[in-house]
Amino acid sequence: MLSSSSRELIHASVPVLREHGETITRCFYARMFERHPELKNLFNMGNQQSGAQQQSLASALYAYAANIDDQDVLAPVVGRIVQKHVSLGVRAEHYPIVGENLLGAIRETLGDAATPELIDAWAEAYGLLAGALIDEEARVYREKGVQPGEFMPVRVARKVRESATVTSFHLEALDGGSLPAFQPGQYISLALHVDALGLRQARQYSLSDASRKDVWRISVKREADGSVSNLLHDDIEPGDIVEVSVPCGDFVLDEHAQERLVLIGAGVGITPLLSMLHTSLDRWPDRAVTLLYATRDGDHHPMKDEVESLAGTHATFATHVCYEAPLAGDQQGRDFDRAGRLDLDVLEPAMLPPDGHYYICGPETFMQAQRSALRARGIDAARIQCEVFGPSLVAHLN
């Protein structure tokens, strides 16, 4: 438990973190990578260049300080951090390195304002958080039966173009044996060596089909500056070997619920929802399922035929598709239901029941808008789950 004197100092530092948080985190990463360049393999260097990683850490520091007395608020965020760390192979010995450089960055940024008492308080707070993460990550590693940092080689069995920007990769075990089971909604990390960076880089990709022993499917969007996604799209072909983590993530389907399942996605955010959709229709065919999906146009509509086939063969499954800017060949009533952005207010009330279970995945602003619309309709927050990464992971705490 954090001492009362340290708690007071942490609380007092909240305004400082709001003002100087990103300066501190930029300094932190620069210090750490200079002293420990091997850790660049653990971090998304694209996010480093864009500033997203610094913003994410600054948000996390602020949220931790602002909510240090309310562990119930912090617990869901800590749980998601643990899952991501396990997927990347974070180890216990990394935490002292992070702590040393974080405290050094606070001293360097705040100067004389970083009194010994303040640094000691943050050292105590960081030590408690690090200990909790180390213990929980060790538990998850044991539960999954892997060692920290352990990736397994798999073979690309098929490569399927799903849209103008999304391609699916079907992965199989090298020996033709079984792959670990996963919960619908989880992701894996996939690691490739990026020659342009001289680094091994890992990215998380949602598993986009129901869990099967013989094959996993991930569906990857090509990002304009995505070093790994571009390598996958351009260079990786069937027969190639790639390294992946065990499945991780806590954005998962509640397999005990019987009420209507409502899946709300945009763009490549459809991928974990497809895993939930296939699983629900396969295992509980009588459960009502609705997919509400938004994308740019027909060229950017992945898995269109797959979803339409499911809708045609399952009376319990309904869809509503929005194209923000339909192309000349896109036909309303055939390819999509409504032009423009997804607007929950125009939907029939029966599609959004108060006792439904809602799962949302897509760009951060999309998820925020859909969650707000559901809450405005009286949907209990406990019935709404969002797949969040980066700065949005702690946005609701700030």
TrEMBL record:
Required cofactor names? FAD; heme b
Segment forming the signal sequence: none
Q: What does this protein do?
A: Is involved in NO detoxification in an aerobic process, termed nitric oxide dioxygenase (NOD) reaction that utilizes O(2) and NAD(P)H to convert NO to nitrate, which protects the bacterium from various noxious nitrogen compounds. Therefore, plays a central role in the inducible response to nitrosative stress.
Q: Tell me the classification of the organism that encodes this protein.
A: Bacteria, Pseudomonadati, Pseudomonadota, Betaproteobacteria, Rhodocyclales
Q: Where is the Globin domain?
A: 1-138
The record's listing under NCBIfam families reads: PRK13289.1
Which intervals hold domain FAD-binding FR-type?
A: 149-254
What are the alphabetically sorted keywords of the record?
Detoxification, FAD, Flavoprotein, Heme, Iron, Metal-binding, NAD, NADP, Oxidoreductase, Oxygen transport, Transport
This protein's record includes keyword Flavoprotein: yes
One annotated GO molecular function: FAD binding
Tell me its EC number(s), please.
1.14.12.17
Catalytic activity from the UniProt record: 2 nitric oxide + NADPH + 2 O2 = 2 nitrate + NADP(+) + H(+); 2 nitric oxide + NADH + 2 O2 = 2 nitrate + NAD(+) + H(+)
Q: Does the keyword 4Fe-4S apply?
A: no
| Highest taxon, organism lineage | Bacteria
Q: What is its EC class?
A: oxidoreductase
Q: Name one Pfam family in it.
A: FAD_binding_6
What family name appears in the similarity comment?
A: In the C-terminal section; belongs to the flavoprotein pyridine nucleotide cytochrome reductase family. Belongs to the globin family. Two-domain flavohemoproteins subfamily.
Instruction: List, in alphabetical order, the GO biological process terms annotated in this UniProt record.
Output: cellular response to nitrosative stress; nitric oxide catabolic process; response to toxic substance
Protein name, entry field: Flavohemoprotein
